[in-house]
Design goal:
The protein has 629 residues and is α+β, with helices and mostly antiparallel strands. The protein has 18 helices and 15 strands.
Length: 629
């Protein structure tokens, strides 16, 4: 079958080369780093030690015993720069320092698990900030609350505040890490986190969320800290005033009735003489109080406390996680904020109030903070998402319609979001039109060249396969097709005959009448052969100067021999004339047929036919010699 050169058939091959190269690169063995390699250890130890020092010495308190810790920022940066192995080393060192400082071993579990979770989400294409937010919402806060419930007897309100405070701390640190990460060169990012580049809308959305997350958290924490600090200061001042008022009342009363008080307090402890003092104190104090002597024996107390006079006032100092400016004590299984003052007679006045007066304010502010942050994030996420889509929509449409001429007006109108976008869109539309025009022109050229190449290929085929004088197959073209036909006949046991024909005394014709007339004779005889060899299975060729060859296949051997005889008779009747020259020609024929035994090769068949032709020539010419097997 002839092959026609088509340039378009080669274009996919060239385009495919880039795909093959990319595939080879993508399947090349990735470099894997051992956790014990020097680079991983040094990187992890360096970031871990700096993170530990930051957690231990550079924390920023914002209320109570809760502070902002920045060591996890360095851990996350180590993770995105060198991968999980280095990140785990840095996380372990940094988390140990924080757990030791806060005397909370469970912080180690929470912070190390954060590194694992963020690593897995980064591998799945999540951004750093989004990965950390997902961790704290669905893993960090529930895990913190569970550990606190198991190990602590604090109130549920304090548990919730502790968990949410820790999550805000984590998100704040992740926001700072993500902000630094956004300015890191891509070559410094761990190769397994690079993956497919994110969409421009995702990048814009992430940057917008970063710009609102940090300021929102910082401003909210500042306002919350100021409000709580103000409330603590107010309560501390109130406790101080109450203590001083009670101390003034007690000193004045004792000074004016010292002897009487001593006598009756010793002789008649249950006489009720203290009632005037109790009445004065109850009218003066707004909070509960306890007055004890230098032996810590109760002299007076608020009725609500139900304390026995002259009993021991025993209490234990305690620690409130939300309040650090006012001390706390525990007695009768209750917690109180307190203020103590000592009178001139060495009596101790302890003014008490419930810590709920402060924790309720903290809880209210904290819940407002969490709600405001959540609402801000949701609203801004919607706005940022719509804005990012609006910014990137012209670019997306340009990419989708760059190869066609549709939607030009829509793309121009959508690009009017900014002057820069409009200029880029105009330039790209112009470039697209130039490209489309070039493609159309190139396509026409390719079609024209393809037609020319097809014609040229046909011409080259004719030159390579056919005889220029007779338009029959030449020796090479005949051998190619005849070999294929021969193999098929042998394989399927189809009868075939090889016929070799030679013009008798053709050299004498050339010498007598000249070569042009000889060519006319050859053309005339070839036309005679063509009249008889009309089947698609008949192959006819010019094998030499005055020698012709025919391969007959199909039917039976007798039909082949009969066709050969008709050709021989037809040539005898043919006259070739030119001007006043008239010539009759004869031909000698050698036939070799295969009808029952197919053991002969193609070359053997040709040789056998040639031997029969030589036999016809030797025995007088103008004869047919046949060999069959």
């Amino acid at each position: 079958m002839r092959k026609v050169f088509d340039l378009r058939s080669y274009l996919p091959r060239f385009r495919g080369r880039d795909f093959v190269i990319k595939k080879l690169v993508s399947h090349s063995p990735a470099h894997s780093e051992s956790v014990f390699s020097a680079g991983i250890l040094l990187f992890g130890l360096g970031f871990g030690i700096i993170g530990a020092l930051t957690n231990y010495f550079l924390s920023i308190p914002f209320y109570g015993y809760f502070s902002l810790y920045f060591g996890q920022i360095l851990v996350l940066l180590c993770l995105v720069a060198r991968g999980l192995n280095a990140g785990i080393i840095a996380s372990v060192i940094s988390a140990i320092a924080l757990a030791v400082k806060l005397d909370d071993p469970f912080l180690f579990i929470i912070l190390v698990s954060e590194t694992f979770a963020v690593h897995m989400m980064l591998r799945n294409g999540k951004t750093l900030l989004l990965a950390d937010v997902i961790y704290w919402l669905f893993i960090g806060v529930p895990l913190t609350l569970l550990l606190l419930m198991i190990t602590s007897a604090t109130s549920s309100e304090l548990l919730i505040i502790s968990g949410l405070t820790l999550s805000i701390n984590g998100i704040f640190g992740a926001s700072l890490a993500a902000l630094i990460y956004s300015f890191m060169p891509i070559k410094n990012v761990y190769k397994k986190y690079r993956g497919k580049p994110p969409k421009l809308a995702t990048v814009i959305f992430s940057l917008c969320m970063l710009t609102v997350t940090l300021p929102t958290i910082i401003i909210s924490l500042i306002f919350t800290w100021q409000n709580i600090d103000q409330k603590e200061q107010e309560i501390a001042n109130t406790l101080t005033r109450q203590g001083e008022q009670i101390m003034y009342v007690v000193d004045a009363f004792v000074d004016s009735h010292l002897a009487t008080v001593n006598t009756f307090a010793t002789t008649f402890p249950n006489s009720g003489f203290s009632l005037p003092v109790q009445t004065v104190l109850d009218a003066t104090a707004f909070y509960e109080y306890v007055i004890t002597d230098k032996n810590n024996m109760i002299l007076f107390a608020s009725p609500k406390l139900e304390l026995v006079t002259l009993s021991q006032f025993s209490y234990q100092p305690s620690k409130n996680l939300l309040i650090d400016k006012i001390p706390e004590l525990t007695f009768q299984n209750n917690k109180y904020l307190y203020y103590q003052s000592i009178t001139q007679h060495e009596w101790t006045i302890t003014v008490l109030t419930s810590p709920n007066i402060v924790t309720q304010v903290i809880s209210k502010n904290f819940y407002i903070l969490a709600a405001c942050l959540f609402i801000t994030f949701v609203v801004f996420a919607i706005i940022a998402n719509q804005l990012s889509k609006r910014i990137t929509l012209p670019l997306v449409n340009l990419a989708n319609h760059f190869n066609d001429s549709s939607a030009s007006e829509d793309m121009v109108s959508e690009a009017e979001i900014s002057d820069e976008m409009k200029k880029v869109t105009d330039k790209l539309i112009n470039s697209r039109e130039i490209m489309l025009n070039f493609q159309q022109h190139l396509s026409l050229q390719v079609q024209d060249k393809t037609k020319q190449l097809t014609t040229l290929n046909n011409q080259l085929y004719n030159l390579a396969q056919k005889d220029g004088l007779t338009n029959l197959l030449n020796r090479s073209g005949f051998d190619d097709l005849a070999n294929t036909t021969f193999r098929n006949c042998v394989r399927n046991h189809i009868p075939l005959s090889m016929v070799l024909i030679d013009i008798d005394d053709f050299k004498q014709i050339n010498d007598t009448y000249g070569h042009p007339f000889g060519d006319t004779c050859i053309i005339s005889i070839s036309k005679t052969f063509n009249r008889f060899c009309k089947r698609t299975t008949d192959l006819l060729g010019r094998y030499g100067g005055e020698e012709f060859i025919i391969l007959l296949s199909g039917g039976n051997i007798e039909e082949h021999h009969e066709l050969t005889k008709r050709i021989h008779r037809a040539v005898q009747k043919t006259k070739v004339s030119s001007e006043d020259i008239v010539v009759r020609m004869t031909i000698s024929i050698g036939v070799s047929s295969m009808g029952s035994n197919y053991g002969m090769s193609f070359e053997g068949l040709v040789k056998s036919a040639d031997e029969q032709l030589y036999k016809s020539k030797r025995t007088g010419k103008n004869k047919i010699s046949i060999y069959s097997q």
